């Protein structure tokens, strides 16, 4: 494990960068004159570009060397974070977030691929658990640490200071890349760079339309963005199939998605992270705008959730050993119960009594954090186990593409509904409705988890009976 610590820090930094965006969101409107839709777009731009570049970056790592691509991505991420912290206006910030997303896309698939190919079977399980914990810690630490920095009251410690903290893990991991094992590049396949654009631009159009639609009363051009994004994504998928049949380079080979376990795992990743992305955004808006907490207080309240997430992530091998293939199903049940209780607390909390809501969240948040970690950890192992090691970069790209695209879509859809409902219902009750939508996504996750385990058991039985 000591050999790959730079990889774990890099995974932490990539997800930390996204999460910091959530805690600064309530301050972007007053400081930069941005509407709620524009703020959501600034957050989602990172995840969209991250998602679009992941698979091609994984292929580039396979072709040119993962350690080399990791170092390039870490340097670019640190530079883009400095540009984001110095952004003079909203659209400059959006552009810097796009650069951060592109750099993170280069980093993330290299980290998971290095973890996969650097260990034997037994050690790989522990390494994947550590990777899962570090990337998960980054997701929750962004809000906690970002809130702490914003609350320091120093000259450069507002939202810009929180963004600047993204530089630290990137530079630390960059210094340690020389300690990583040298990999032998495989130059047999040329990545489909054009495919990344054909995926990224429609995704950006779709997310932009969904994010800006509610704040513009669904002006014709926002509906056109959504429609054009969906049509272009359909055209992209049809084109990928034709290119694969013709033997040309593809970004996502349709044949690689034939294993049922992989398809189910990716669908579960979309459901899980759409809910989490929306929850993170809504939490920051509710606590800082609706309840009047400072960024520091908001981050401290989230610490219980974050601590439970981290502890469960670190204990994941023991948790899965205890509950076996039912871990994700049980975790989904606990998460649904916690979401319902938090929704009731949010709906019933009297206006002007933030301490009551905070007390409820500190207790319920422990179960929410542990449950989400217990969904996330086993899911990573399932998806990564669906493809052979020689395609480790592609496997990492597929999983994290689904994760990042879902984060962006969650902020744009569930988060957009939350923002639209806040004026008529109030922040707390709008949050309760949004939690109800997350209950629906969690129920769907539970159904797919059952189907996935039934498929895996059937496959094991069939292979066991094969002479």
UniProtKB/TrEMBL annotation:
Query: In this record, what's one Pfam family?
Result: MFS_1
State the InterPro entries in the record: MFS (IPR011701), MFS_dom (IPR020846), MFS_trans_sf (IPR036259)
Q: What is its main location?
A: membrane
Record has Transmembrane as a keyword: yes
Note the topology in the membrane: Multi-pass membrane protein
Q: Which organism is it from?
A: Pseudonocardia zijingensis
Q: List each copy of the Major facilitator superfamily (MFS) profile domain by range.
A: 3-453
Spans traversing the lipid bilayer: 39-57, 69-92, 127-150, 156-175, 195-212, 218-239, 260-279, 299-316, 328-348, 354-371, 391-421, 427-449
Among its keywords, does the record have Membrane? yes
Query: Domain of life, per the record?
Result: Bacteria
Record keywords: Membrane, Transmembrane, Transmembrane helix
Where does the record say this protein resides? Answer: Cell membrane
Instruction: Give the matching Gene3D superfamilies.
Output: MFS general substrate transporter like domains, Multidrug resistance protein D
Protein name, as recorded: MFS transporter
Q: Which PANTHER family does this chain map to?
A: ACTINORHODIN TRANSPORTER-RELATED, MAJOR FACILITATOR SUPERFAMILY MULTIDRUG TRANSPORTER MFSC
């Amino acid at each position: 494990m000591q050999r790959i610590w730079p990889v774990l820090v890099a995974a932490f930094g990539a997800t930390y960068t996204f999460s910091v965006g959530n805690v600064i969101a309530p301050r972007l409107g007053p400081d930069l004159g941005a509407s709620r839709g524009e703020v959501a777009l600034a957050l989602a731009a990172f995840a969209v570009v991250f998602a679009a570049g992941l698979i091609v970056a994984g292929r580039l790592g396979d072709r040119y060397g993962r350690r080399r691509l990791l170092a390039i991505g870490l340097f670019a991420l640190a530079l883009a974070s400095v540009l984001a912290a110095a952004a003079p206006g909203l659209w400059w910030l959006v552009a810097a977030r796009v650069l951060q997303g592109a750099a993170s896309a280069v980093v993330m698939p290299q980290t998971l691929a290095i973890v996969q190919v650097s260990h034997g079977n037994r050690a790989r399980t522990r390494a994947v658990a550590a990777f899962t914990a570090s990337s998960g810690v980054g997701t929750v630490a962004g809000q906690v640490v970002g809130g702490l920095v914003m609350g320091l009251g120093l000259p450069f410690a507002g939202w810009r200071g929180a963004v600047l903290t993204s530089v630290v893990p990137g530079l630390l991991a960059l210094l340690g890349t020389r300690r990583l094992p040298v990999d032998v590049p495989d130059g047999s396949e040329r990545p489909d760079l054009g495919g990344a654009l054909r995926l990224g631009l429609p995704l950006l159009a779709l997310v932009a339309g969904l994010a800006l639609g509610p704040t513009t009363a669904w002006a014709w051009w926002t509906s056109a963005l959504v429609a054009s994004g969906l049509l272009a994504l359909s055209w992209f998928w049809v084109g990928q199939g034709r290119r694969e049949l013709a033997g040309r380079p593809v970004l996502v080979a349709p044949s690689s998605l034939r294993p049922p376990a992989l398809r189910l795992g990716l669908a579960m990743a979309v459901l899980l992270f759409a809910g989490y992305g929306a929850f993170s955004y809504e939490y920051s808006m509710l606590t800082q705008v609706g309840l009047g907490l400072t960024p520091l207080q908001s981050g401290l309240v989230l610490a219980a959730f974050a601590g439970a997430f981290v502890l469960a992530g670190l204990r994941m091998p023991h948790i899965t050993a205890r509950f076996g293939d039912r871990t994700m199903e049980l975790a989904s049940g606990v998460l649904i119960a916690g979401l319902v209780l938090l929704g009731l607390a949010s709906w019933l909390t009297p206006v002007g009594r933030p301490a009551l809501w905070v007390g409820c969240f500190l207790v319920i948040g422990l179960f929410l954090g542990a449950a989400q970690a217990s969904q996330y950890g086993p899911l990573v192992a399932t998806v990564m186990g669906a493809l052979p090691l020689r395609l480790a970069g592609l496997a990492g790209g597929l999983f994290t593409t689904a994760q990042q695209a879902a984060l962006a879509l969650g902020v744009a859809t569930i988060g957009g509904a939350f923002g639209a409902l806040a004026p008529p219902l109030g922040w707390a009750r709008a949050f309760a409705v949004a939690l109800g939508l997350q209950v629906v996504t969690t129920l769907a996750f539970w159904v797919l988890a059952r189907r996935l385990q039934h498929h895996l058991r059937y496959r094991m039985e069939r292979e066991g009976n094969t002479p």
